[in-house]
Design brief:
This protein has 295 residues and is of the alpha/beta class. 45% of the residues lie in helices and 20% in strands. The protein has nine helices and twelve strands. 34% of the residues are buried.
Length: 295
Amino acid sequence: MNASTPIILAVDDKVENLDILTSLLEDYDVRDVTDAAGAWQILDHTPVDLILLDIMMPDIDGFELCRQLQDDERTRAIPIIFISAMSDEATISRAFEVGGKDYVTKPFRPLELLARVRTHLELKFLMARLHNLAYFDSLTGIANRRRFFDLATALFAAPGDLQAVMLDIDHFKQVNDRHGHAGGGKVLRLVADTIGDRLPPETVFGRLGGEEFAILFPGVDPDTVLAAMDGIRQAVADLVIPLEEGNLSCTISCGLASRTADTGNIDALLHDADQALYQAKGSGRNRVIFRHIQK
């Protein structure tokens, strides 16, 4: 099965119904189970794209399973199509109330079911694409400015140590002037990949614009961040970036600031880090400067 083939989870307590669905949906990767417990076993380790859900099942019925799926952040975005022999208005209405996206009555018409499955998969993938366009930088794949500040504001509201780093690529304008925007884009991608590969998962890393990036480190002290950023700085300096005109090397300058009791908001923290970045660039570039705030 191709890795890009949509995965459909079919949940029905009758094996013969599952056999029919699996045969009909032969172009998809169908995982079939007969109860809610089996559904969760699949969902716990498989990125399901669509769920076909029966209503009448033992232990937990389709309505309750749908509620559980809607309450779980991991599964909330998966579209659910109810497939049931019940066709009364109250049952159909309830199916939509608990979070179902569509309702098909048994015995279903194969072409109609295929069309509904295809439509909901297309909508899901379109919404995922729109989400990526809205929140992720199209060039580097990391958080864009909007996404970064959404996450940063929430992180700033949480208690504990918080360190902010502002960084940019040294003399990046010369890169664009000599190698064009295609060359500059390649440099940005490889630098972002090099940085991101060396950051712990709890950090927030975003591109704020141009060659300017920002990182937030929650729950660690400045010395830990200084050591991490110096390693990242060296890793970037060691990069050999192949361009049409030949290989290119580049460096980054980084400014670090800590949240204090007097840091009013995330903008103030990033301003302090930006001042440290200014010091790093003014003192020779290719270095990490920690700005000690005296207040």
